[in-house]
Amino acid sequence: MRWGPSTGTRSDPANDSDPMRFEAVQLSKSISFLQGTGTITRETPAEFERFLATDAAKSSRDLSLHSPGGDELAGMELGRAIRKARLNTAIERSIPLEGLMKVYRYKDPACTSACAYAFLGGVSRSYSADALYGLHRNASVTSAASSGAAPQYLDEMGIDPRVLQSTAGATTKGDIFVVPNVLGKEWRIIFDASGMTTFAVEERRGRTTAVFEFTDRGHKYGGMLYCEQGRSALAILDRDDWVHPVLRIIN
Description:
Structural class: alpha/beta
Number of helices: 7
Distance between the termini: 45 Å
Strand content: 25-35%
Radius of gyration: 21 Å
Largest sheet: 5 strands, mixed
Oligomer: single chain
Helix content: 10-25%
C-alpha cells in the first residue's frame, strides 16, 4: 500500500507476528520518541538492550508499544529493562513516512498479554481511550502467574495485585480482558509520576532562596528561585542527566 501526496508515502508495516523491533521516530528537528512493535520473544529483552546502546535510543525517554503479546516472562524482563532505563511508556503505533518529519499514526493500537506486562515497566504510563490494553482472562492461572512470577512482578512495578484476580473473573473480548482507562487508573496501570516533591525557603549566600525538588514523568530535578540585583532568577538542575545534549538549550 502507498499513501498519496497529502500524507506522504510509505511501505507496508512489518507484520505484528514478526519479532518486536525498536526504532526512534522523529517528530520534529528536536523531538522524537522511541517505539517497539511486534511480538515479544525470548530474544526481545536482549534486542532492547542492544537498542538502548545506540545513539537513536538516547534521543527520547518516551517509548510507544504496539504488540499482540508473546512470551510473558520475556515481557516481564523487558519491563524491568524499561524501568531500569527510566523510560515512560504509551500504547501507540506510528510509521515514519517518506519526507521530512512526517509520521502516520495508526488508530486502535494494542498492547496485550506479554506486552501488557512490559508496558508496566514505564515510570509514567498512559494510553488513550482508543488504545487496547489487555491481559489474558486466565492470567491468574498461566505458568508465569501460577509460578509466582506475575504477582511478584506486579508488586515490583507498583501495580495493584488485584489486577490478576479481577482479570480472571471479568467479561472479556475473546480471551483478553480489556482494561478501560478508569480501571487502569485505579489499579495504577495508568500512572503519572510527575509532581512536586519538596519545597523549602533557605538563606543561601546572604539571600532568601526557594529550594525545591520535583519529578516530571519520573525524572528527577532540583531547582532554586531567588532575586539578584532586583531581578528574579530561576535555576533548574537535571539530576538524572537524561536530557539529550541537543535539547539542552537555555534561554
